[in-house]
Amino acid sequence: MNLKINTVLAVLLATTSMATAGGLDRATTGTSTLFEKGSYGELSYASTTPSVGPNANPLIGLAGGMNVTQSFTTTQFSFKTDLNDKLSVAISFNNNPFGVDIDYDDFATGGGAYASITSLRANLDSTALTAMAKYKITDRVSAIAALKYQAVSGTADVSVPLTAGSLALGGNPVDGDVSLTRASDTNFIVGASYEIPEIALRVVATYESEATFDPSVIAENLGGANTGPGQIKTPEVLMLEFQSGVAANTLVFGSIRHAKWEDAQVKMSAAYRNAQLSDFDNSTTYTLGVGRKFSDSFSASLSASMDTGDGDDASLLAPTGGSTAISLGGKYTLNNGMAISGGVSRRAYNSATWYGSDSTLGGGDDVTFGDNSVTTLGMKLSVSF
What we know:
Mean pLDDT: 82
Number of strands: 22
Number of domains: 1
CATH superfamily: Outer membrane protein transport protein (OMPP1/FadL/TodX)
Distance between the termini: 23 Å
Number of helices: 2
Helix content: under 10%
Strand order of the largest sheet: 1-2-3-5-6-7-8-13-14-16-17-18-19-22
Oligomer: single chain
Low-confidence stretches: 1-19, 108-116, 161-169
Strand content: over 45%
Order of helices and strands: HEEEEEEHEEEEEEEEEEEEEEEE
CATH topology: Porin
Radius of gyration: 22 Å
Structural class: mainly beta
Shape: globular
């Protein structure tokens, strides 16, 4: 059985930080490019529109119907080639692998602890350049390795109650406009794959190390004073991907991705006693789908996914809980080796609760975020030669 059904799942993974594996994630790093035949290039684009906001709570003067998140786009370019019959290499650039675009300016509240939240606005931009290699040990077993260079920068108008962890350290109030200078780090990916080409079977397991960024926190409201380095982390990630032919021109595929976001938080500089602005939880994302080749030129895929993120004591930077999603994609292949892919993904979130300024459930100023969702539209142009 010789199947070649390339889904557009990679394009649809460019969802919001709350729509993939939790934390700040927007687009994950995959290894599928390494398994393309011969030389291969692709350019993908995705537009994501989230709708995340608090439920109304008249007891504290909180109005509902607002959206605290902002739309964003993700662009990725990848190129792969074979150096010989055993070694393949690839390079990939992504302009938005993780980030934040959130604005509580319309968080209409009556006062108290909530008066300070009305100024919470944050923007965090990132880029990633990944160099990957696959070495064929046997006809079925291969080793995978990659280096991933990432850079971040951002701005924020921050005035928020501290998390319980920061309060325990005696954290100072975080108030005023700040900017984060550009900071970078390089992490690595290692893994292995097992293939049976006759039935289109492929299993890939990878480990990605964490990355640590130490941008200087510039206090714009204090004349541009440098208050020292803050800290942003991306987590360790364990990933298992599989696909297998199950019938003529039919493929099943799936993945399990575990991200250790509990160890990857956002912190201010020492001038603010390293106040922790996030409260991310570990998350595991399960995906299962089916691809079907309808003709030599057209194939399609349908997949569903579930994220186990915890909605208790949610972070204001990502105020969502677990989620479920469905994605539909299609691919049209031209006679000259070029292909056009497109798809749509719709994700619905479970409710999440921010525990308020006292970081305690039922403390009187809790806020619940419910009935939230995100929609991503993606397209990809690829060529094999």
